[in-house]
Amino acid sequence: MLKDKIVFISGASSGIGEAAAVRFAKEGAILIICARNLEKLDALKEQLVKDYGVEVHTYKLDVRDKKAINSVFESMPERLKNIDILVNNAGLAQGLEKVQEEDMEDFDVMIDTNIKGLLYLTRKVVPIMINNGRGHVINIGSTAGIVAYPGGTVYCATKAAVKFISDGLRMDVVDTPIKVTNIQPGMVETNFSVIRFHGDKEKADAVYEGIEPLTAEDIADVILYTASVPAHVQICEVTVTPTHQATAGVVHKEKVSK
């Protein structure tokens, strides 16, 4: 079902985005992969072409930059603009301080990336999908968008926004064949926590001690499944956590001997 479908993935240079690119490549999709790190994207492209013989296009893109998004689409061959699946994956958390103590630069980065960047890409792609009479928008939300947790005020708010943007968009396109899915992962061990702690890997590793977290591949499997169901089926929302995580803030961890 996915062979030769055009799939656009933001934040594809690592983590869930990279794993999703691999999954779609295995299915023979045509990939447009974007991220801020072009070197990593090009290395991923080389590997995907070698392993699966698929067509892959890479673009350096910071989703916070509307002009950069416009530039990518202007430079893209016309046939590639007919995107079948948009995976709004680019997103991040910065810091774990109380809101009254957090660096306001972190506010801007999270809001501009997680909310505005997602909206910019959605606004660019959905009219094309409507015009073509087909399409699927897959947003990567978070359990943090369902229940808040201490130190995550702004991040949780941005992921709550992803949920409501997904729900609202689904209503906006209900008279079209366009599908909208919001995937809400719990604890996934990627470079997410390294970014949150501004490169402090020791702090990042401690987040996952005592629990077996999800992997990027686990979430990529869910993304692929939601994209593979029949045309009359729309999976609106999926929440996925490790077995020992109930909500964003309720986690059971085994004691780890040092």
Automatic annotation (TrEMBL):
Spans through the membrane: none
Keyword Lipoprotein belongs to the record: no
Alphabetized Pfam families for the sequence: adh_short (PF00106)
Keyword tRNA processing: no
Assigned keywords, A-Z: Oxidoreductase
InterPro entries per record: NAD(P)-bd_dom_sf (IPR036291), Sc_DH/Rdtase_CS (IPR020904), SDR_fam (IPR002347)
GO molecular function: oxidoreductase activity, acting on the CH-OH group of donors, NAD or NADP as acceptor
Family: Belongs to the short-chain dehydrogenases/reductases (SDR) family.
UniProt name for this protein: NAD(P)-dependent oxidoreductase
